[in-house]
Amino acid sequence: MPVSSYTSTTLEARVGIGVALRVDQETLPIRVQEVVQDTPAAKAGLKPGSWIVSDNGTNTVGKTVNECAGMIRGAVGAEVKLEIVEPDFRATNQFTLKLEKL
User: For 7-43, what is each residue's pLDDT tens digit?
Assistant: First the structure.
C-alpha cells in the first residue's frame, strides 16, 4: 500500500505537518495512517484513521497520495486548510495548520 507524507523534502530539511498518508481502497479518500508526535498535526489533534476529504478547499476523493501531498507543499509558516472526517464518522472538523520544519 503506498505511503507518503505531507512533507516537502530538500537536501537540508523537510517541511510539513507530520502525517503519513494512504489511499483507502474501499472509500477512495486519503486516510491518515500515522501522526508524528510533536508536529503540527499532532498538536492539532489529527488522529490515525481519519479521512482527509478536502485539502485547501480541493476535494481529495480520487486523488493519489502524491497529488494530495503536492497540494500542501510550501515554505515554513505556510497554512494548510484540511477538512477531516474522524474515524468514528461522528464529526467533520476543519483544521488550519502551519507547515513546520520536521
Answer: 443 334 588 899 888 887 766 778 899 999 999 999 9
In CATH terms, the superfamily for domain 4-101 is PDZ domain (2.30.42.10)
Determine the Cα–Cα distance for residues 83 and 96; give it in Å rounded to an integer: 9
Per residue, the 3-state secondary structure of 2-41, as one string, reads CCEEEEEECCCCEEEEEEEEEECCCCCCEEEEEECCCCHH
Q: How many CB atoms lie within 10 A of CB 8?
A: 19
Q: Report pLDDT digits (tens) over 42-90.
A: 999 999 999 998 988 889 888 888 888 887 778 899 999 999 998 887 7
